[in-house]
Amino acid sequence: MIDQAEHGGLRRALEIAAHPAVPFGPNPRVGCVLLGPDSRVIAEGYHRGAGTAHAEVDALARAGSADTVGATAIVTLEPCAHTGRTGPCTQALIDAGIRRVVIGRRDPNPVAAGGVEVLRAAGIEVDADVPAELAAEAAALNRGWEHGLWHARPLVTAKLALTLDGRVAAADGSSRWITGSAAREWVHRLRARCDVVLVGAGTARADLPALTARRTDGTLHPRQPLRAVMGLGRVPDLPTPERAVPAVQLRTHDPSEALADLHARGRRHVLLEGGPTLAAVFLTAGLVDELIVHLAPKLLGAGPAAIGSLGIGTIADALALDLVDTTLLTSPDGRTDLQLTLRPPAA
């Protein structure tokens, strides 16, 4: 097991790996902290995107004249053992005289994996037995990237805001605001954790949504998702505040084609924020990996339903989901909404 200093080092490595300046995309986010034999921090480093130095190499470079012989390297993801655009991190650690390596998560990529065995063969002590909460954070850090490795498509999270009777708008079409400010702020944080926000052409034409990630003070978050519109026909230009990513139109009605297009663009986590039709299209195709529902304590009695037709005619064929988390979101005015996180049953 890791000691207290290594625990703090891994916590810090996870923080810097998730730095807002690090782009999402086809490469994992990784952080590294180097501890000297006295457990003091020598240097920190993190991966800044495809083609840049990996976290371990970045940290070693930042160590400068500090002696790394006998040091401990704490890394959020198993050091790579292959040569791609950059050399293997395992060799860099060996050459630097690192004595011990702590790993938050083993690398699931078969091309890059094997670092643990290489390090141990070189006489370096490797410890991947980290506390469960840190291991969970290391896994969550690259959830979309890992999903792309196994499925060759982005992870899809669908978000819905609805009333107790399942309405997403009133009979006159008004929908602002179904949920309170706490739920809306949570959605902006979610947008900043995804690299695509996707809506349908109908929503784009009707609402002209900005689809940006904003802080509580209204300013744009440093990390902005790609804004994408799916569907045929003319779509008006979406509002594009300064620093927002220009919107793109995927000219297809097929959700698989849309995800293939986004995957080819290097995008790995898609947030669906369209209307009932878009949600139904992806659910029917079995392409929703996670459903976030914000349930407001309101009743409308009429208005559009949260989900369009799924082609289900009998209760026996209902689409069953696993409820994995419930959270109360309370706004400053005391208004509370219920957040439900649901996922399809594991295969």
Task: Quickly list its features.
single chain; 347 residues; alpha/beta; 8-stranded mixed β-sheet; 5-stranded mixed β-sheet; 10 helices; 21% strand; elongated; multifunctional enzyme; Riboflavin biosynthesis protein RibD; DHFR-like_dom_sf; NADP
Describe the fold and architecture:
This is Riboflavin biosynthesis protein RibD. Its cofactor is Zn(2+). It is a single chain. With 347 residues, this protein is an alpha/beta fold. 27% of the residues lie in helices and 21% in strands. It is built from ten helices and 13 strands. The strands form two sheets. An eight-stranded mixed beta sheet has the order 9-8-7-10-6-11-13-12, with helices on both faces. The chain has a five-stranded mixed beta sheet with strand order 2-1-3-4-5, sandwiched between helices. Helix 8 links the parallel strand 7 and strand 8. Helix 3 runs parallel beside helix 4. The model has no long low-confidence stretch (mean pLDDT 91).
